[in-house]
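Suppose you are handed a protein chain with no further information: no name, no annotation, nothing but its sequence. What can you learn? This example shows the usual starting point.
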Amino acid sequence: MTDREFFISLISGHIATLEDWRADYKSMDAELWHGKPAEECNPEDWLEDGLLKEVEADTNKTTKE
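A reasonable first move is to predict its three-dimensional structure. Written in structure tokens, the prediction is:
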């Protein structure tokens, strides 16, 4: 199984892979994502400005209903 990095949005609680969050970031307006004027946006700060925090996820567990 491949290890993946998962991040949670501290605003919405949504959890997604780093790749999914990066795709969201690239599809959005920089000012909207960073929450500041374009001239103050630093693409290197996209994780911090997006209020994303890395979380551990155990993808090997299964659930029974």
